[in-house]
Amino acid sequence: MELREKIAHLYRRFGFGARPEDLDRGEEIGLDGVMHRLLDYRSVDENFEVDPHEFAWRTKSDADPSAGSYRLWWAMRMVCGERPAQEQLTLFWHGHFAVSDAKVEDGSMMLQYLNTLRSHADGNFVDLLKAVSKDPAMMRYLDLQRSLVGSPNENFAREVMELFTMGIGNYTEKDVKEAARAFTGWSYVNMYYEFPGTNAKKLKEAMTYNRPFSAFALMPAMHDRSPKTILGKTDFFDGDMFLEHLASSPATARHMCAKLWTYYAYPNPEPALVERLADEWQKSNGNIKHMLFAIARSPEFWSDRCVRKKIKSPADLCVAICRQMGAGKALLDLRGPANVETPMSQQVLNNMYALIDRMARCGLSIFYPTDVSGWKGGDAWVSPAAMVERYGFRGLLVYAQKGIGPCTKHTLEYVKSQSPADSASLAAAVTRLFDIDLPPEGQQVLTQLIDRHGGVKVLNKENVWAYALDRSLLTLMAAPETHVC
Question: What average pLDDT is seen over the chain?
Answer without folding.
Answer: 96
